[in-house]
Specification:
This protein is of the alpha+beta class. It has five helices and four strands. 49% of the residues lie in helices and 11% in strands. It has a four-stranded mixed sheet, covered by helices on one side. Strand 2 and strand 3 form a beta hairpin. Helix 1 runs parallel beside helix 2, helix 2 packs across helix 3 and helix 3 crosses helix 5. It starts with a helix and ends with a helix. This is IrrE N-terminal-like domain-containing protein.
Length: 142
Amino acid sequence: MIYQQTEEACDYLLEKAKEYHIDVKWKHFSPTTPPGSSYEYRRVVMNLDWHRPEELIFQLAHELAHVIHGDTGDVVFYHASFTGKESVEYKANVGAVELLVPFYCQGTEIQCVNSTNFMQSFHVPHYLASIVSEKIREYYKN
């Protein structure tokens, strides 16, 4: 993903955070400290020093989805964990896809949209491939 595109995606998500009255803080932590969120405080805390910076956009969308969905308790991002479609992490990943699809698709004809490119651009876990395709189709139906 090109830096400018990453910056634009981040700006888009930060605007979404404002719409939902979610405070986003960017802090320096150990490179292995995952971001987290709190529904109670309507806050997301992102790690500026994350060891895989290419994942930050999807992480931000994921953490925003936790707050938007009202997930109670403080939760952290588990990019690789898939514990079933009913898990809070899976649902937050789906929410992240739902947040990012309009940004990715805006102003683009459906024949030019590629779910594989979407997944690569935002480092979406592979087990969400069918969800990405479904959400892109839904975007163009509406």
